[in-house]
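note to self: dont lose this again. the chain is below, predicted strucutre after it. 262 aa total, dont forget to put it in the shared folder this time
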Amino acid sequence: MKVESKNDGNGGGELASMNALKVKSCINENTTVIIVIGACENHGDHMPFGADFIFPTELLKRVAAKLKDAIILPYIPYGMSSHHADYQMTISLQSSTVVRIIQDICESIIKNGIRRILIINGHDGNIAPIEIASRYVKNKHPKVVIACLEAWWVLVGQSRHNLFDVCDGLGHGGEAETSAMLAVRPDLVQMSNAPKDVIPKLPTNVRIYWKFNELSDTSTTGAPRKATVEKGSRIVEILEAILLSFLEEMETNQWKYGISPK
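---
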């Protein structure tokens, strides 16, 4: 897998739109397969239900334009969303189902001789199932490398503390997530419907496993009204740079890490 200024048309793309000859030409020992997993749930009156897979997919389209030997799988539109189940039309999988889906997809990838897998996650409820599945697959196939961008919404706030107005942008359908969607799919965001700020009171050092209706009466948290296209563009730039830097470093080390590069 190489990071290039642009895709030369021979190195990869979205699997769903590739034919068999194209796929055959892309698969080699350097191929990286990228999986996007999201959710389908209420993000407030201003945001689409599919935000958790729409944004990562749009982000990867931009990243893929600079990659060679990378294949992006069709996104997984559902996740573990039981904590949002009190809201209308939440489509949730059992955590064990999410684990099994990821395991089965990874096994299918590995059968094709691919040893480099990158997961891009768009939903907090998927973090634990992704880790369980990835550790199972890694234990079964030690030579396979599985990496994951677990929580981009946390990462952007940590990377640029001055980018957001409230809580480093954190929130469900909040400042960061709404800004991100404004940058990639503004047609799906209706800012006139954005709810007021909702900042739940939660302890800082000990985690509570909440139901979302305990945190919000609008199905959102954070400060969605403070979202802007400009902030969203910076989010895309930050994440694109992080992903490309990661992939370039991994390529330099031939996807070895720990004590292996030496």
